[in-house]
Each structure stands twice: as C-alpha cells, then as structure tokens.
Structure to design on (505 residues):
C-alpha cells in the first residue's frame, strides 16, 4: 500500500464511520495494542486478508489521533505476528494524516492448505478466529475440521458405517447401478460383484460407505435421521411470520429416502406449493403451464444441496432446508463452499469435490450431469423465465441458493436481515422499469448522498422497487461522471459499499 492509498483509506473509514470485513482500526496513541492475535488470525483466514489501521480513534468518530512511535509500533506488531502459526508477514505503511502519523499493517491471506492461522499461546482450538463483519469470532470445531479434511483429502462420503450390513442395500436399485457401469465399461463384468462394489465406493472392506447408504439403503434416515430435507411454506417474508389464522406454516414436510427419492419428492413439494399460470398460445391455441419458479432450476438446486452438502459428523444434526416465502425460494445446504471455490467462481471454475463418490453415483441414479453444469443451468432457467438472477450465498457453515419470483420488490427485500439485503437487491435486475417520482431527481439524490448511503437506502429514498433501475439510470452514470464515489472502490460489489457525493461531506 502506498502512502496516498493509506490516506484515502483513512478518509473512507472516517466517512463511513465503521470498520469492515477487511479493516480493523486501533488507536495506538499511548502504546501498541497488547492483543492483536484475534484479528491477525481472522484476517489471515479469509481470502481477502485484511488491513489494520493504527492512529484512528473509533470511540471519537474515527478521529486521527496518531501513533506513539512508528518504529516501536512496527517492532511490537511484528512480535505478535511471530506468535501466530503459521507466522504472519505484515506489510507496513506510514504516512502523515491530518497533522499526525498513522500506520497500516496489511495482513495477507494464508494459503488454504495452511489454515487455520491461530495464536500459538492459545492453541488451535481456542486461538483460531474468523472475521464476520467487523468482528473477530472464535472458529467453531466444524470450521477447524473443514480445513483439516481439505488438507488431508478426507472425503466423508467414503467413510464406512458398520451399523448397516450390505444386505440392507436395496437389491434392485443396486443391480441397475452395476448394470449401467457394466454397459459403460464391458471389462467391468469380469469382476466379482463384491469387487465392483469396492471399486465404486459402495463398500469398503465389505462394509457399506455413507455414499452407498445414501444411494442404496432401504431407509437411510433410520441411521442418519437428519440426512434428510425439511421443507416449509411460510405465509410471509421471514420465518416467524404468521398468516391470517395465525398459522406459522402453510405446508411443511420432512422428506426422507435415498438421494434420488428425496430429489423427486422435494421437487414435487415445491411444484405443489408454487403458483402456476396457464398460458394459451394465440397462434396454436395450445395450453402450457408456467410455474412460479422453473422446475429444472429447483431440481438442480436441490440436487446440488444433497450431493455437495457436508456429511461430516459435525453436521449430522442438520438437514437440507427448503423455505418457501412470498417473494422467494431458499435452499439451504449444510457446510459452506468446499476448498478454494468462491461464489464468484461458481459455474466458471472447476471445483474441488467434497463428495466425489456420491457425485459419481448420483450421475447414474438421478440423471445429474457431473460436469459442473448445475449452477449455469439454474442461471439460464431463471433468465429464460424472465426472473431475477439467482443469488448464491456462502454463509457461515452453510451454502444457500435463493430464487426470487416475479413479485419481488424493494419492499419485500427490506424485510430481510440487513446482512442479506445487498445480495438480494443485486439480484433484482429484471421486471418492469417504473418511472421515477417527479418530485425527486438527480439533485435530490446528490444532496441525499452528502452522507454515505447504501443501495438499499437510495432505493428507499427514491421510492423505487428495483436495484437495476437505480444503478443503471442514476448511480452508475453519476459514478462515471465523478459526481458520486464509492467508499470501497476496490470492492464494488461489497455488502458494505456506500455511495457519497463528491465535494459534499
């Protein structure tokens, strides 16, 4: 980081009056902060790394108060960095700002294979942290475990389950699967059946694997009750909303069975609870039904949730969750994205497979294309249906797919938790464009943004439903003309992004 960049960053923090996912502010006016270990750990464990800024006082509206001694501060911060495992290699920048000296320490992200980074004095279990918003939170046992299994190439779908004998695998389904594999590879027929099952990871040492149980057992939930799907229809916009008769759920169901059985039953549940329009072709007179959400997109989302969920012992108590709301359909899968995959890379880069054996079996048993086509299919189906782009959220310890229907609006999104509003608004990019109110225009918007504003605040002020209209018609042109600026220009899609008017503070 250059000195000019540090000054700009300090100014943005003062404008925003908040820390961020990758920014932590420390005063250091009277000495070096004695415990930076939590932040050093959390920044090292996130892909973007982070920046410590010394010399601003959070308790005084982030006023520049300076640091006590630049040389000694760097020395003592480095000492704390060396107490981490692996050691943190901070990069320091000094500059004068508002008449005082300030300092930044850039904390690089460590390689995924070396995570978690933790404070050696506390140990891995108590000394590893994760960044959530502007807070450093202790890593859960599951989060630590997820790094371990990735580093050691452990696949939980291949672990054996001794409580289930091979005799409890459904014979007809198993034979159909083996016959498919024989047809693909004729030489496969030369093996004995027990050898085939071993090579296909259905068994290990004659004992069924978890993948084998989830695909072939007569009743997998007899052993793993929560390796199932819970599906609910909520009469409002959030869990807890009630209907006219004070009902919490308009429909709910626990879906059990093998993966292929659960997929089909889940799609049936979703179709049953969708609004369906009957459209008559004016040229042919033929009827066709248009579902509220494209069924192919729903099927791919459910299939992905079951195949790629975390099946470790840490998530045995957590089912896949399907939530129907007035404006959207959410599919929750236990476990966040596996390996090096990020949300931005979904459907583009080749992912690491958390459950390779399960994925191969699903290809034969469910018709799933094990070719990384699930995410592109969901996107295409939603676009073809004229619906907002799907939202993929890698939340803490779960991955969520959100499909919005044609009724989504700013007013419904505003009811969502603040941390989720930005991604929701960003997806709302289709539908009818509404006219701007006559009494509000560009000058009003610029005056409103004299204080940094979020997209949702701008949408609310302008009385506009869709983010697409606000961004395309007003915000983006004003950004290009230099009349508006972003508080986080290096992260234009950040959920913490705000927009402010140049020359008005």
């Amino acid at each position: 980081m250059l000195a000019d960049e540090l000054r700009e960053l300090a100014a943005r923090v003062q404008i925003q009056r908040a820390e961020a996912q990758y920014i932590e502010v420390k005063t250091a006016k009277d000495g070096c902060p004695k415990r930076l270990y939590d932040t050093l750990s959390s920044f090292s464990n996130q892909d973007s790394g982070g920046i410590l800024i010394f010399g601003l006082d959070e308790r005084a509206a982030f006023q520049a108060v300076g640091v006590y001694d630049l040389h000694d501060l760097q020395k003592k911060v480095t000492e704390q960095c060396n107490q981490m495992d692996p050691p943190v290699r901070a990069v320091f920048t000094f500059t004068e700002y508002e008449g005082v000296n300030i300092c930044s320490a850039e904390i690089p992200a460590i390689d995924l294979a070396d995570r978690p980074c933790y404070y050696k004095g506390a140990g891995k279990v108590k000394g590893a942290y994760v960044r959530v918003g502007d807070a450093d939170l202790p890593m859960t046992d599951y989060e630590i475990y997820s790094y371990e299994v990735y580093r050691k190439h452990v696949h939980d779908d291949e672990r054996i389950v001794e409580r289930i004998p091979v005799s409890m695998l459904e014979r007809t389904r198993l034979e159909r699967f083996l016959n498919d594999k024989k047809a693909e590879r004729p030489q496969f027929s030369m093996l004995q059946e027990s050898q085939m099952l071993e090579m296909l990871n259905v068994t290990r040492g004659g004992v069924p694997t978890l993948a084998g149980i989830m695909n072939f057992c007569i009743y997998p939930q007899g052993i793993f009750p929560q390796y199932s799907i819970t599906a609910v229809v909520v009469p409002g916009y959030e869990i807890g909303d009630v209907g006219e008769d004070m009902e919490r759920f308009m429909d709910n169901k626990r879906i059990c069975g093998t993966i292929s059985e659960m997929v089909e039953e889940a799609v049936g549940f979703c179709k049953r609870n969708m609004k369906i329009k009957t459209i008559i072709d004016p040229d042919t007179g033929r009827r066709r039904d248009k579902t509220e959400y494209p069924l192919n997109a729903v099927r791919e989302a459910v299939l992905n949730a079951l195949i790629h969920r975390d099946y470790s012992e840490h998530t045995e108590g957590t089912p896949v969750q399907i939530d129907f709301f007035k404006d959207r359909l959410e599919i929750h899968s236990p476990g966040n994205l596996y390996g090096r995959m990020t949300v931005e890379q979904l459907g583009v880069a080749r992912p690491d497979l958390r459950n390779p054996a399960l994925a191969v079996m699903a290809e034969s048993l469910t018709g799933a294309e094990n070719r990384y086509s699930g995410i592109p299919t969901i996107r295409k189906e939603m676009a073809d249906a004229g619906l907002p782009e799907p939202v993929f959220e890698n939340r803490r310890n779960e991955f969520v797919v959100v499909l919005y229907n044609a009724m989504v609006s700013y007013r419904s999104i505003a009811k969502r938790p603040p941390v989720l509003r930005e991604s929701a608004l960003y997806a709302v990019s289709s539908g009818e464009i509404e006219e701007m109110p006559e009494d509000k225009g560009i000058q009003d918007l610029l005056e409103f943004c004299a204080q940094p504003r979020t997209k949702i605040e701008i949408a609310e002020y302008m009385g506009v439903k869709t983010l697409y209209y606000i961004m395309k018609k007003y915000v983006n042109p004003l950004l290009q003309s230099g009349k508006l600026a972003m508080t986080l220009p290096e992260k234009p899609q950040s959920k913490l992004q705000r927009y402010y008017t140049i020359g008005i503070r």
About this structure: The two ends are 25 Å apart (CA to CA). Residues 429-439 have pLDDT under 50 and may be disordered.
